[in-house]
Amino acid sequence: MPDQLSEPGPEEDYHVWHPFTQMGRFDREPQLVIDRAEGNVLIAQDGREYIDGVASMWAIVHGHGHPHIVNAIQEQAAKLQHSTLLGVAHQPVIDLADRLAALLPADLDHVFFSENGASAIEVALKMAIQFWVNEGFPDRKRIVAMEDAYHGDTIGAVSVGGSGPFRDVYEPLLFEPLRFPNPYHYRSSECAGADNCTCVDQLGEVLKEHQNEVAAVIIEPRVQGAGGMIVAPEGHIARIRRLCDEYDVLLIADEIATGFGKTGEMFACDLEGVVPDMSVLGKGITGGYLPLSATITNKRIYKSFYDAADDAKKLFHGHTYAGNPICCAAALANLDVFESEDILKQVRGKADFLAAQLSERLGDHPLVGEIRQQGLMVGIELVSDRETKQALPREAMAGWNVCLAARDRGVFVRPLGDTVVVMPPLAIETAQLEQICGAVTYGIDKIDESDHT
C-alpha cells in the first residue's frame, strides 16, 4: 500500500490544481505562496524574498511593477475593459498592430491577436493549411517540425511538439508532423556537432521528398526552450529559410520564448537577419503582465484570405478576449520602455557577465555536463559523469532538488528535467545575477554531497 500521509492531502483541503505539478507530492514539499513582487524580486506571504530567476515563466521583461506599464493598465482599465475584435476594433489594438508591424521586418505587417502563445501557434498552423487551400493546393497540408520541439499545450501545438510526456499520452488526439533533427549536439546521434551541423541537411531531404505535401516548417529559432534550452549554431535559421524558399514552403518562427530581447536581439530571427512568413509572439509581449499573443504574417498570406466575393476564404478562428484593450495597453507600454531605454545593449552586457559567472562557478563542476546560453537564456544540464555524459537517476529528481535548494539562497528557478533553467527578466541587475549563479551552484553542490550514482 502507498504511504499514508499524516496530514490531510491536498485533495481534501487544497483546491488549486497546479500546471506541470505532481500534486501527490505537493504537500510534502515547501509550498511557496507569492504575495507581491518588486522589480526582479518575488515576495512570499511569509516575507521571504526570492529573485525571479525565470521571469515568472519566461514572461517578465522589465521587472515587476514597472510604473509605466502599471499606469497604462490602470488608465485603460478605467476607460474600456473589453470589446470584441469580431468585426469591431478599438484604438489600443490598432495602435499595437501598427507598432508591431513597424518593429518587425517590413513584410510582416498583418497581426492576428490571441490570448496565449499556444493559441497563437494554433492560428499559425491553421493559417498555413488554409493558405494553400485558398491558393488551390489542398494537398499541401503537412507540417514539418523539429525533434524535441515544444510549441504549447493545445492540441495542434502538442502535435508539432516532440515526443515524451508532453505528447505521448495524448497521441489519439494528435496529428503527426514530418520531423527533422534538432541541433542538440551534446547528445545527438544524428549530427557531427556545432562546427559541422547536418541537421538542416535532413530537413532538405524531407522537403525534397514531400514538397507537394508540405504547408509549413515550424521552428523555435536559435533556442529550443522547453526541449532543454538547446542552442542552435550560427547560420541554422538562415539555412532553414533558404530551404523553405527553395521548396516554396512557409516558415513559422515560434518566438514566444525567444522574443522581446531575451537572445540579445529583439527577436531571435534578427540574429541572422531572417524574415519568416509568420512570427508568433507571446509571453513578453505585454512585459509579462497580462495574457496576449500575436501571429504576424506577410502580405502573401494575408492576401490569400482577402476576397470580398468569397466568404469561405476568411480565417475561421477567434477568441473572446483576443486583443483585449487592457492587454494591448500593457503591450504598448512595454514597447515604450524598449524604445526609451537602451534595453538590448544592456542585455548583451548582462549576458556576457552571466556567461563569465557560470564559467567560473560551474565550468568544471563534476555534475555539470554542459552550459548552453544565448543572451539571457541559459540551460545547465546535470549529469552523473562528465566523461560519459551519463544522466543522473531519474528518481533522484536532481534538477528539482537543485532548484529547491536555490530557494535557501533567495532565488527562484525551475528545471526542465535535469536541466536547470536560468532566464531572468531583462531588468536583472549584475548583483542579482551573481546571487542566482551562487544559489544554483549551492544547489548543485548539495546534490554532489549526496549519493547521486
Show the helix and strand layout.
Blueprint: H1 10-13, H2 23-26, E1 34-38, E2 41-44, E3 49-52, H3 55-58, H4 67-77, H5 91-103, E4 108-114, H6 117-134, E5 142-146, H7 155-159, E6 178-180, H8 199-210, E7 214-219, E8 223-224, E9 230-231, H9 236-246, E10 250-254, E11 278-281, E12 293-298, H10 299-305, H11 325-340, H12 343-362, E13 368-374, E14 377-382, H13 398-407, E15 411-412, E16 414-416, E17 419-422, H14 430-449
Explain how this protein is built.
This protein has 453 residues and is of the alpha/beta class. It has two domains: 32-65 and 342-449, Aspartate Aminotransferase, domain 1; 68-340, Type I PLP-dependent aspartate aminotransferase-like (Major domain) (Aspartate Aminotransferase, domain 2). It contains 14 helices and 17 strands. The strands form four sheets. Strands 4-12-11-10-7-5-6 form a seven-stranded mixed β-sheet, with helices on both faces. A four-stranded mixed β-sheet has the order 1-2-3-15. It has a four-stranded antiparallel β-sheet with strand order 13-14-17-16, with helices on one face. A hairpin with a 2-residue loop joins strand 1 (34-38) and strand 2 (41-44). Helix 4 (67-77) runs antiparallel to helix 11, helix 8 packs parallel to helix 9 (236-246) and helix 12 (343-362) packs parallel to helix 14. The longest helix is centred in the last third of the chain and has 20 residues, at 343-362. It is globular and about 70 Å long. Mean pLDDT is 94; it is low at 1-8.
